[in-house]
Design a protein that fits this description.
Elements lengths: L1 E13 H5 L4 H4 L10 E13 L2 E5 L9 H5 L9 H7 L9 E3 L5 H4 L3 E3 L6 E3 L5 E4 L1 H8 L11 H9 L3 E3 L8 E2 L6 E5 L6 E8 L2 E5 L22 H18 L2 E3 L8 E7 L2 E8 L1 H4 L2
Length: 286
């Protein structure tokens, strides 16, 4: 098995929204804001090369929305999904599976693109199966008013219409699911219904792709929860459970949204679970 970090682009969001009720005087120590109160964020995806399968976890925002839409998110840097795949010798057509942790636009927007004459949409990965789960698909396609702006129809329905959409079976009474993709999945409902956190067994390590359960290093303290989460008290419990597992089992936590920290480990301390080490992906994906 080989693992590759795929940089799908960078953006900014309001720091207050990213940290909820936590005062700026605290969160700006780890996530400094610019003059507009915006903090740097990434869409760092992960490519798994395992035998004949090329599995891409999340796909970033994509590029099919309007300039006005992207103007809200202050895109920065030169990274793109295509350039990042090419860096490792791959093309979108090589991808066999696209696994989406959840269907908010910044995690799945790159899965669907304009067709050639821009009259409609088509899969950006024409040879891939797109993976979600039935609970989250229903949640996303019948969105509540709070999340409606994050679940974009142009990202979702083309997946089903093209016939490439598949669903991961979920257990009834367990927070850990198996998948036919070769990794386990930790299920979390606080951010959105049935977000899926992949646990990838790589050599002697477990790589946890953290998605929005832990967006940045700055979100390690338990009460540091995004204002975007639909059930923040549930996130609190899920973070506590997961961070305890991560510290006990020595997980390497791959951060999707932290623009400046790629992988971290945590440890138990007298004050709870705290940061142990930070790593570049090049130190871990040998």
């Amino acid at each position: 098995m080989n693992l590759y970090p795929i940089q799908a682009g960078n953006f900014k969001l309001d720091g207050g929204a990213m940290f909820g009720v936590v005062p700026k005087s605290l969160w700006q120590k780890t996530n400094p804001a610019d003059a507009n109160n915006m903090i740097d964020l990434s869409t760092r995806c992960l490519l798994i090369e395992d035998g004949n399968r090329l599995i891409l976890i999340d796909t970033g925002m994509g590029d099919k929305q309007s300039d006005k839409f992207f103007g809200y998110y202050y895109l920065w840097g030169e990274d793109s999904l295509d350039k990042s795949l090419a860096k490792y010798g791959f093309h979108k057509n090589d991808i066999t599976d696209v696994f989406m942790t959840h269907l908010h636009f910044d995690h799945c927007g790159g899965s669907i693109q304009w067709n050639k004459d821009r009259t409609g949409y088509e899969p950006a990965f024409k040879n891939a199966r797109f993976w979600t789960n039935t609970n989250h698909w229903q949640w996303a396609t019948q969105p509540n008013r709070r999340e409606k702006a994050s679940f974009l129809k142009e990202n979702l329905w083309p997946m089903k219409e093209c016939g490439q959409l598949h669903f991961i079976p979920l257990p009834h009474n367990d927070s850990i699911a198996d998948s036919e993709l070769g990794f386990d999945i930790f299920l979390a409902d606080g951010h959105t219904e049935k977000q899926m956190i992949p646990l990838i067994h790589y050599k002697d390590k477990t790589i946890a792709f953290m998605a929005d359960l832990l967006p940045t290093v700055g979100h390690l303290p338990l009460p540091y929860i995004m204002g975007y989460d639909t059930r923040p008290l549930l996130t609190l419990n899920e973070k506590e459970k997961f961070l305890d597992l991560a510290a006990t089992r020595g997980y390497y936590m791959f951060l999707e949204h932290d623009a400046h920290n790629e992988i971290i480990t945590v440890e138990h301390t007298e004050k709870g679970v705290r940061l142990k080490h930070t790593f570049k992906t090049t130190e871990i994906f040998i």
